[in-house]
Amino acid sequence: MTFVDLPSPNHAPRPDGQGVDILVLHYTELPLRESLDILRDGMRELRVSSHYVLDLDGTVYRLVPEERTAWHAGKSWWRGREGLNATSIGIEIVNLHGDRHDYPPVQIDALTELCRGILARHPAIEPRNVVGHSDIAPQRKIDPGRRFPWKTLAERGIGLWPRAGVRPLDGDFHKALQRYGYAPPLAVPPKEIVKAFQRHYRPAQVDGMIDPETRSQLAGLLDPLGRAA
């Protein structure tokens, strides 16, 4: 894996006492050069950045040191916390639209190596805290998209994937989603939260319907006591 240092001016200190416990994966939706220009532009009215940008060929561009806050998550929510930039690391993955374009194997291999290094340096990032932008910002974001290989990453020790053959979850589905980490349905329209969950764990059908398969997928992520696996 090749690293290229291209510092961005768009960062800030992490708040005192705040460690890193979330890893957020994005897609750029723009080609590499345009993405780098935006993420390194300190003159924009709304300045944005990420810690890393991962190109199609597996090259990793380092923009912000991991000990600093990058501005990639925006208005976000996960496991009862809002505004997740302060406690997260963000990776922008070059892909023009993750619902239409596959991620090449060489890129995913490099992402695997990059994520493993991040997880080793920040052991507070537990598996369910490896999330997509759409997980933490339902309705507002859809990246990294339905073609992103979450299952492959989970098989490589990065994130979670539902256990197969689990009986559909009974009871209030949205309360169970909150136990796992998603925003409460009062903060975001309930259907959009279900879509975000499906986009990550049931990408073949993202319709926001709480059907038996969707209930089974969430049950496969929770232990019998309803706590996150």
From TrEMBL:
Keyword Zinc applies: no
Annotated keywords: Cell wall biogenesis/degradation, Hydrolase
Signal peptide range in chain numbering: none
Domain N-acetylmuramoyl-L-alanine amidase: 8-145
Catalytic activity: Hydrolyzes the link between N-acetylmuramoyl residues and L-amino acid residues in certain cell-wall glycopeptides
Source taxon at top rank: Bacteria
Nucleus keyword on record: no
EC id: 3.5.1.28
InterPro entries: Amidase/PGRP_sf, Amidase_domain, NAMLAA_amidase_2, PGBD-like_sf, PGBDSf
Database matches in PANTHER family: N-ACETYLMURAMOYL-L-ALANINE AMIDASE AMID
Membership in a protein family: Belongs to the N-acetylmuramoyl-L-alanine amidase 2 family.
Designated name of the protein: N-acetylmuramoyl-L-alanine amidase
